[in-house]
Amino acid sequence: MTTARRPLWPSRSDACWLFVAAFAFAGLNVLLYRLGDVTTGLLGPAAGLVLQLLCDFSLVLLFRFPGPVCAFLTAVAFAMLASDTFAPGLLVPLHPLALTTVPAITPVILSQAARVLDRRTVLWVAGVLAVVAARPWTPSWSTTPFGLLNTALPALSSLYFQARRQLLQSLRDRAERAEREQHLLAEQARAAERRRLAGEMHDVVTHRLSLMVLHAGALGVTSADPAARTAAEDIRREGALALDELRDLVGVLRNGVESGPRTLSPAEPGDPARLVEESRSVGVTTELVVDGDPAQVSPTVARTAYRLVQEALTNVRKHAPGAAATVSLRYHPGGLDVSVGNTAAARMPDPALAGSGSGAGLAGLRQRVELVGGRFDAAPAPGGGFRVGAILPAYVPTAEGTHGDPGARGR
Fold it and tell me: Measuring CA to CA, which residue among 242, 240, 238 is closest to residue 201?
């Protein structure tokens, strides 16, 4: 099993500041060499400077080779200690300007080693260097405090901030996980509520509608009155259409998807012309104006327009008896403009019929229109009438639109 090699530098910014720090400490050491004493041993006057420069430029290799760099730094610190103890002047000047007795780059290397080495290794390296730098066997105000400041303090500070970052990241991850779990629980609760509603609608409403359709069918067969048979057939047909739409709604509540796309045609529900005919059949003077090709819009948009016309004409029958209505559909490449307007009511509405709704019809229409990216408008018209309109896009990128709209592939 091969281990992945560490990158030479984690990022370009890290590389930049590593080189800047290395050159800055190299410049500092050159300055101290020029201003202070030089080494006087057999290795020459620049022996200490060369050793310091090697430590300075080892910083740029810290992220790729953290262990060897820390080992090299420790070895140099022991060499400086040995020179100062057994061969004064060999690697360290007899009277150095710097009060530190370890390489000057030590605090930078220790502070960054915490990013790439485990905590125990960093503590071991920092502890060894702290003993070498502080020299507890010969404590002195000129060496011990500065030795601890250059070794123990940067290492412990770096470990603290590293642990703090990890803690904050852990808390952030925990909060995000809790938020995701909360959203999941809420979605599960909504799904359970939808399934419950679907069950109630299937068990109660579907049962009642089925009985109504059966009774209407039986009345159409047994009745001797032609008008009664026609009315019974109308009731049976409308009940059957209501059952179809109810099955679609139950499927949406249970599964979150519709039972399947439908192809809109004048003979099937979904065509506004059928709604206009129904409105005329109950005595409402209704005019239909169609401009353009209905094939230019997707099934989702067409169904939204159908629901808008359906709700608007229902409101006309409820709240404006005796009024005339006009349904306008203008299809164009950019979408569909829908408008349903009516004149003022000729008489007072039936209180029982006007109060049969939930009062949320227009709000539901607005939400439906906005869900497909359209704009909804509803306001009183001059002369006492009312107008409901919407500007709908040609295509909504949904799964239904992609499969059911032949023109969706090219959009």
Answer: 242
Say which residue the tokens 């080992």 belong to: 71
Q: How many residues does the chain have?
A: 411
At 42-79, the pLDDT tens digits run 888 888 889 989 999 999 999 989 999 999 999 999 98
What DSSP state is assigned to residue 44? Answer: -
> CA 309, CA 324: separation in Å to the nearest integer?
14
Distances (CA, A) of 354 to 128, 316, 351: 90, 10, 5
Token code pair at residue 278: 């129904």
**Measured between alpha carbons, how far is 121 from 127 in angstroms, rounded to an integer?**
10
> In which order are the strands placed within the sheet that holds 375-380?
286-291, 325-332, 335-342, 386-393, 375-380
Angle between helix 66-86 and helix 119-134 axes, rounded to 10 deg: 10
- At 19-32, the pLDDT tens digits run 999 999 999 989 98
Confirm whether pTM is higher than 0.70: no
Q: Which two tokens stand for residue 217?
A: 């069918």
Question: What is the number of other CB atoms lying within 10 angstroms of the CB of residue 40?
Answer: 14
DSSP-derived pairing of the beta strands 325-332 and 335-342:
antiparallel
**How are beta strands 335-342 and 375-380 bridged, if at all?**
unpaired
